[in-house]
Design a protein that fits this description.
- This protein has 400 residues and is α+β, with helices and mostly antiparallel strands.
- It has helices spanning 17-24, 43-55, 86-94, 116-133, 226-239, 267-281, 284-298, 351-359, 367-373, 381-392; strands at residues 2-4, 31-33, 62-66, 69-70, 104-109, 141-148, 150-153, 162-170, 172-179, 186-191, 195-198, 202-208, 212-220, 319-322, 327-329, 336-340, 343-347, 364-366, 396-399.
- The chain has an eight-stranded antiparallel β-sheet with strand order 2-11-8-13-6-5-3-4, with helices on one face. Strands 1-10-9-12-7 form a five-stranded mixed β-sheet, with no helix packed on it. Strands 18-14-19 form a three-stranded antiparallel β-sheet.
- α1 (17-24) packs across α4 (116-133), α5 (226-239) crosses α6 and α5 (226-239) crosses α7.
- The longest helix has 18 residues, at 116-133.
């Protein structure tokens, strides 16, 4: 077994930290890196997200695991606004009548999408790494975890085709990581401020002997990771054109056969297969994948993104401030696609093309000035629709 509390080289200067990490550690052995670039999230922010996730109307996949399994309905055992921080939450669970000192681990997926400010900080942090190792074309997912006196094994949801970046936000964590095809197990010890990394194809065990909060990003790192993603896209396209309702979905028994004994597959199987092949030969999958890729590109891969906010009434005098790069691309003769902050839309030509091109050259502008630059009327519905959608995904802000 290899033990790794710290890598031997001294930490690199902050300006070169991601370059140093990429050169020394990416796609290599499991390692703990002290002084690595931060995730953009601290323990207080993580607690705030966990409290929000516990009451979120949309599911955030929260799981509270104890020694003998996962609680079906943790209810009052989830974080609440009355818990001042993660330490306060852990103290409450240790109190009589709660978990009575039993070890536990709370995990939450998609919680980052509940707070745009915190999500964007993490997005900006990992974008620095992608500049050196390449941008992931598939979703990078985030998991928040807090727990104590709990040892967990990688479960069925683990991604053997993905690498992992784990920031310890408070406390300490021991991990036993076994990369595939090596026969070597690495024992990693990380404390607050450290970054633990292991490459794709690794399995791991975690041991939290005292309260510890972590943020883990799962980064698809192999071509096989794209297969379920592409299949999902094709499945969505097929659902847009469902098969006619079949009053007899079952196949006759016994199955009819030709005189020579040859069995002919039932149409209930052959027709969906034919439609699947037809969908792959069209340009629908390419357009759908382009839309998704644009959204991920604008989010540095971090998925899901925070939902759009409500729209506002716009006038020609409305002052706009651009907050981010607005990506706009086109595949062949298809419609223009634009994306910002993890959301992608199609735009109507030529208004969208002109407006997006001009917005890329300015940081502040009024609706009226934007219309003039694009040779459009300030009340042009296509222009106002575009600007309104850009506001909703927070690519534009209104200034007084």
């Amino acid at each position: 077994m290899k033990r790794s509390c710290r890598p031997s080289p001294a930490p690199a200067p902050p300006a070169d930290a991601w370059r140093h990490f990429a050169d020394q550690h990416w796609a290599k052995e499991p390692v703990v890196v002290p002084g690595a670039p931060g995730s953009g999230l601290d323990a207080a922010g993580a607690h705030r997200l966990l409290v929000a996730a516990a009451v979120a109307p949309e599911p955030t996949r929260m799981r509270l695991a104890v020694a003998d399994g996962v609680l079906r309905d943790p209810g009052p055992l989830l974080p609440s606004p009355q818990d001042r921080d993660t330490a306060g939450y852990a103290a409450r669970l240790a109190a009589p009548g709660q978990l009575d000192g039993e070890g536990w681990l709370l995990t939450a997926e998609h919680a980052l999408s509940l707070d745009f400010t915190l999500w964007s900080r993490v997005r900006d942090a990992v974008a620095g790494l992608w500049r050196h190792v390449g941008r992931p074309p598939l979703p990078v997912t985030a998991e928040l975890a807090v727990g104590t006196r709990h040892q967990s094994a990688e479960d069925f949801g683990a991604r053997p085709d993905a690498a992992a970046l784990t920031w310890v936000l408070d406390g300490s964590l021991t991990m036993r990581v076994r990369p595939e095809h090596t026969g070597t197990e690495f024992e990693l010890h990380a404390t607050a401020g450290d970054l633990a990394y292991w490459p794709a194809g690794s399995t791991h065990l975690e041991d939290r002997t005292r309260p510890c909060t972590t943020l883990r990003l799962t980064v698809p790192a192999r071509t096989t990771a794209a297969l379920p993603y592409v299949g999902e896209v094709v499945g969505e396209l097929l659902r847009l054109h469902p098969l006619p309702a079949d009053e007899q979905p079952s196949v006759p028994h016994p199955v009819s056969a030709d005189a020579d004994g040859h069995l002919t597959p039932a149409s209930q199987f052959t027709e969906p297969a034919r439609r699947y092949v037809t969908a792959l030969t069209g340009d629908g999958p390419e357009r759908a994948l382009l839309l998704r890729w644009a959204a991920l590109r604008s989010a540095a891969g971090l998925h899901p993104a925070p939902p759009p906010r409500p729209g506002v009434a716009l006038t020609p005098r409305s002052r706009l401030r651009r907050t981010t790069e607005i990506l706009h691309v086109r595949a062949g003769a298809g419609p223009l696609v634009w994306a910002a902050h993890g959301h992608a839309r199609t735009g109507t030509e030529p208004a969208a093309r002109r407006a997006l091109a001009h917005l890329g050259t300015v940081s502040r502008i009024t609706v009226s000035a934007l219309a003039d630059a694009c040779d459009l009327h300030p009340q042009d519905p296509e222009l106002l629709t575009l600007v309104g959608e850009l506001y909703q995904v927070r690519a534009l802000e209104l200034e007084s």
